[in-house]
Request: fold
Amino acid sequence: MVNHRRRESGAVSLFLVIFAMLLITVVTLSFLRTMIADQQQSSVSDLSKSAYDSALAGTEDAKRALIYYRTVCATGDASACALAKQAIDSNTCNAGLSSVVNTSDPTKVVVAQAQSGGDATFNQSYTCVKMKLATSDYVGTLAANTSKIIPLKTTGTFSQVLLQWFRTEDFGTTGTNVNLEATPPQVDGGGTNQNIWPLLAQSSWPATRPPVMRTQMFQYGSSFTLNSFDSNTSGVSNANTLFLYPTGVTGTANATQDSWSFTDRDVRLTPTGTPLGTTCSGKLSGGGYACSAILNFPVPIGNAPGDTTRTAYLRLTALYKTTRFSVSPIGTQFDGVQPSIDSTGRAGDQYRRVESRVDLINVNFPFPEAALDVSGNLCKNFLVTDSSNTIPANQTTCT
Reply:
């Protein structure tokens, strides 16, 4: 009998085992690397959110400090008011917060809740909060067909205000072209035979067209009487209204800045059926505001010619559409109307910075939106008589 022996080295099996082990190792390491990266990203994201929350905590403490400043100044103590103002306007981090928080550590203010002793382990704090009472502009957002009253309290005198409105964020759609009317397409049927800008139905107003801005000025000088608000003579006035209609060429950028005087058009003197066509830019690819106009204020009644000292307010109403806006007194700054807050928060090794504005007005006396506001119909009774005896004592029905 002959024995046949087969000699097999097993090299192929060995290579297969090694390749499989390498493949499993690579997959395992890749999976571990992905897990570690996700964990690190999650940790950074959590720390970043915590740093943002810390910056917001600094902003809230800054609001408390501003309220304290306003309260101190309301007492009439000029010395205490000056000291509070000096602290608010300090350029040193957290110096303006000494009235509301412990600022013994100039490098940080720890963010922790008194009822939770473990909060400090999160290492959250805000490192630097600065405030400024004087700002170059007042910024805000107006919802469609709503108003805002801006106190024109400034560090110096002024006679002009720059108004800007409508940004790409107000479009409600994508794109950079601003829809504008180039020429007045309608003729006034009321007898004036002048071309007028079209006042469309609310639903017909284009999404990318800036709103019509109703600008109302009311002011007074060193002395005034109530009937002075109904007077407008010789370029002096205490109350006026202008309607600014956005005009221009759609799709064409334009940096033109119109200048209007509040006494140029007053329905009490020159009845008219058309708003003022105000040149706007038809393209906003570089950002900024589409519409810009300089508003010239008249001398207050009772002031000498050229005397621009005044107490003034500007009421803005966005007709048709929501808009962002900016108001800047030319040649001076706002004084405590909308202070700026710059807050930097920290959590671990992550930092976040928040810049914000705060309206510093007396919340106990808000500016009214209207003298009368109703959600339904309004019924009025009119009675003409030559005797007070015929006036009903208690009229409860509308006829």
About this structure: The longest helix spans residues 11-74.
